[in-house]
């Protein structure tokens, strides 16, 4: 990067950087930055859902953690206000207010703020972007091509345009605050963070409010921050992306500020000669010293930039930084920063007319620096008459009275939907509470119009996590309540039903109940072996199972009707409705053969069949033993095997008897 300004890249306050890179930006923060960071520890669970998994880094305002949202099973970043700052009521309130304001900026190119709360210390939960910042890209690539710069500028402009339309100014556009997600999406981070720091009483003691390399000249003369000051910062970022260097380096922050106050941004072609002239012209207009000479809006800037870059946008190729431990360390230097008072945009104020000769201001600054006045002298030059009152979350009537009682004007600039602030109450104010404001100047407020009505999409059949994220993200901004249910038809993890139903009209911030399938209910198979058939069947059905029956003979369970076996082992866990086959005893497997000799043939045959034995009748022409006696036809003369023999069911018994022909022959 050329060693151009003591190597400093960013502010001493990493709380304005996204958690993905905060630790790299300040791997060893000073004691003053980390002392008293509060009781949050790895493993802690915030609000019953955010489990802290790692401490990412710390800055002058907050400690940043990586966490898992256990309700939606996703990674999030948690920014926790330092305990030594939480005692400052105004900063505490602004930290929460800026979290709410940032949460309203629902845009795919803005790092989303999901939630906020207090766990002994206030915290904000935001999207975790797993990807490098533009600063990291510059460190690995050196500089980018015009087509790559166009691919970055477009989403950044869209994000800023969304914020400006909501009446919010970013104030701290720089490479550290532009991230490239793993899927290539460009995201702008930390809307509202600079504002919270700028308007606290800590500013007077030298806390950072912006990086001096990107501050528009009018801000250093006390003018209000506007969308055109964001445009200036973006122009400087585009210059840096194309050249790999800052446009106006100097030895100290004050010297950098003076160069921005009196010198134009140099031509990109001075450092990269093949840059299209039209691209150079776009950057020159975006960074014009007089804000009135800049583009009317960022849409106009993008129109000209698209025309200026032949071939259209090209994706940025991100290379992994070279480091032995995989960690990129960006050196932090306090000399890269400067403290200046800001106000945010409400009703646009006319920018002060900039004179080409600024030597009186430079002389005054030189005197202050030479006498040790430093930043305190700078702040003294721009000292406010009074501090703006705190109006956020007060009713319009109450806020108007408070402003007028403090000697200021009051005006309603707009109304905007909100899911956190009641209708008719102040959503944002400009300038913020505690910011410098001359008496009789107006405090411009945006009133909440309450939650917007949205049409609920159908998510039945979707995966629960995807459905919940769809409901939570813009433009719906709803809360998903997940209820586990069993389902025979819907696969596990998918939505079985939703309430309210699809196409219903609901207010933003409302709750949608999603019944999520846990698959088919699992039940335990009871033990039924040894029970009689009826008792076993009742027990199986009570366990919400089905059964079938097959009969068999059993010596173990000889009593007829007793369950001898079951097809699924007792204690096994199976799907509800599974069929269990019950093997029921039809009696003992073996029998003792009775004596049927002398009995009538049909009587003996029936008795043997009842024992499960097969019968074969053998008719004889003459007696087997002794002479034939009349009337013995139809009786059992003999049996084989003999009485007392043990037979298996199904075996055969031979019964011997006279044939009718033999009897007739004997009669003759």
What can you tell me about this protein's structure?
- The structure is a single chain.
- The chain is an alpha+beta fold and 668 residues long.
- Helices cover 27% and strands 21% of the residues.
- The protein has 18 helices and 28 strands.
- The strands form 10 sheets. It has a 6-stranded antiparallel beta sheet with strand order 1-2-3-4-6-5. The protein has a 3-stranded mixed beta sheet with strand order 10-13-11.
- Helix 6 runs antiparallel to helix 11.
- The longest helix has 20 residues, at 146-165.
- The chain is elongated and about 145 Å long.
How do the helices and strands line up, and which of them pair or pack?
Blueprint (H helix, E strand, L loop, with lengths): L18 H7 L5 H4 L10 E2 L3 E9 L3 E8 L4 E8 L1 H4 L2 H15 L9 E7 L1 E7 L6 H8 L4 H20 L12 E3 L5 E3 L4 H6 L28 H17 L9 H10 L14 H10 L11 H11 L50 H12 L3 H8 L4 E2 L8 H10 L3 E8 L9 E5 L5 E2 L4 E7 L4 E3 L8 H9 L6 E7 L9 E5 L5 E3 L3 E7 L4 E3 L8 H10 L3 E7 L10 E4 L6 E3 L3 E7 L4 E3 L8 H10 L3 E7 L17 E3 L5 E3 L3 E7 L1 H8 L1
Parallel strand pairs: 10-13, 15-18, 20-23, 25-28
Antiparallel strand pairs: 1-2, 2-3, 3-4, 4-6, 5-6, 7-8, 9-12, 11-13, 14-17, 16-18, 19-22, 21-23, 24-27, 26-28
Helix pairs in contact: 6-8, 6-11, 8-10, 10-11, 12-13
């Amino acid at each position: 990067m050329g060693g151009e300004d003591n190597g400093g890249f960013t502010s001493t306050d990493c709380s304005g950087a996204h958690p993905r890179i905060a630790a790299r930006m300040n791997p060893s923060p000073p004691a003053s930055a980390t002392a008293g960071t509060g009781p949050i520890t790895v493993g802690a669970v915030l609000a019953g859902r955010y489990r802290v998994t790692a401490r990412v880094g710390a800055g002058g305002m907050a400690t940043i953690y990586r966490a898992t949202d256990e309700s939606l099973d996703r990674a999030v970043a948690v920014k926790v206000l330092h305990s030594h700052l939480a005692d400052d009521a105004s900063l505490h309130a602004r930290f929460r207010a800026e979290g709410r304001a940032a949460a309203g900026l629902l845009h795919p190119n803005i790092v989303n703020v999901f939630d906020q709360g207090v766990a002994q210390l206030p915290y904000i939960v935001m999207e975790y972007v797993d990807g490098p910042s533009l600063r990291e890209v510059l460190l690995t690539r050196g500089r980018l091509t015009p087509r790559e710069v166009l691919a970055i500028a477009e989403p950044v402009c869209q994000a800023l345009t969304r914020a400006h339309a909501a009446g919010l100014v970013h104030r701290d556009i720089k490479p550290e605050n532009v991230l490239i997600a793993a899927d290539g999406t460009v995201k702008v981070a930390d809307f509202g963070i600079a504002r919270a720091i700028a308007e606290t009483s800590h500013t007077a003691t030298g806390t950072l409010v912006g990086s001096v390399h990107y501050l528009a000249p009018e801000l250093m003369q006390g003018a209000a921050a506007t969308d055109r000051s964001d445009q200036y910062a973006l122009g400087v970022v585009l210059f840096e992306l194309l050249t790999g260097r800052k446009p106006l380096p100097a030895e100290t922050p004050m010297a950098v500020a003076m160069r921005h106050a009196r010198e134009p941004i140099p031509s990109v072609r001075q450092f990269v000669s093949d840059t299209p002239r039209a691209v150079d012209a776009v950057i020159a207009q975006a960074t014009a010293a007089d804000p009135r000479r800049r583009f009317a809006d960022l849409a106009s800037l993008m129109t000209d930039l698209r025309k200026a870059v032949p071939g259209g946008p090209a994706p940025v190729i991100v290379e992994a930084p070279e480091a032995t431990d995989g960690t990129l360390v960006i050196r932090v230097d306090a000399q890269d920063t400067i403290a200046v008072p800001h106000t945010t945009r409400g009703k646009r104020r006319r920018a002060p007319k900039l004179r080409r000769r600024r030597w009186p201001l430079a002389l005054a600054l030189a005197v202050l620096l030479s006498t040790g006045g430093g930043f305190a002298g700078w702040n003294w030059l721009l000292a406010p008459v009074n501090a703006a009152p705190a109006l956020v979350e007060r009713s319009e009537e109450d806020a108007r009275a408070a402003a007028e009682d403090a000697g200021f004007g009051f005006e309603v600039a707009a109304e905007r939907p909100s899911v956190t602030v009641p209708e008719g109450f102040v959503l944002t104010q400009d300038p913020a509470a505690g910011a410098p404001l001359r008496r009789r100047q107006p405090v411009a407020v945006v009133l909440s119009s309450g939650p917007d009505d949205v049409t609920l999409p159908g998510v039945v059949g979707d995966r629960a996590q995807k459905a919940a994220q769809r409901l939570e993200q813009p433009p719906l901004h709803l809360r998903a309540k997940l209820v586990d249910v069993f389902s025979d038809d819907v696969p596990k993890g998918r939505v079985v039903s939703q309430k309210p139903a699809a196409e219903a009209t609901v207010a933003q911030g409302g709750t949608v109940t999603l019944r999520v399938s846990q698959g088919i209910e699992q039940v335990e198979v009871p033990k039924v072996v040894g029970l009689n058939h009826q008792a076993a069947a009742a027990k199986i059905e009570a366990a919400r199972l089905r059964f079938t029956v097959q009969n068999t003979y059993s010596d173990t369970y000889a009593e007829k009707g007793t369950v001898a076996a079951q097809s699924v082992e007792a204690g096994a866990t199976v799907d509800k409705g599974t069929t269990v086959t019950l093997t029921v005893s039809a009696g003992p497997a073996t029998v003792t053969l009775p004596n049927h000799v002398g009995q009538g043939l049909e009587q003996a045959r029936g008795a043997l069949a009842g024992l499960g034995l097969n019968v074969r009748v053998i008719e004889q022409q003459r007696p087997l033993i002794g002479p034939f006696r009349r009337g013995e036809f139809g009786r059992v003369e003999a049996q084989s095997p003999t009485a007392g023999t043990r037979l298996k069911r199904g075996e055969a018994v031979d019964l011997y008897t006279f044939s009718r022909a033999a009897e007739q022959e004997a009669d003759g």
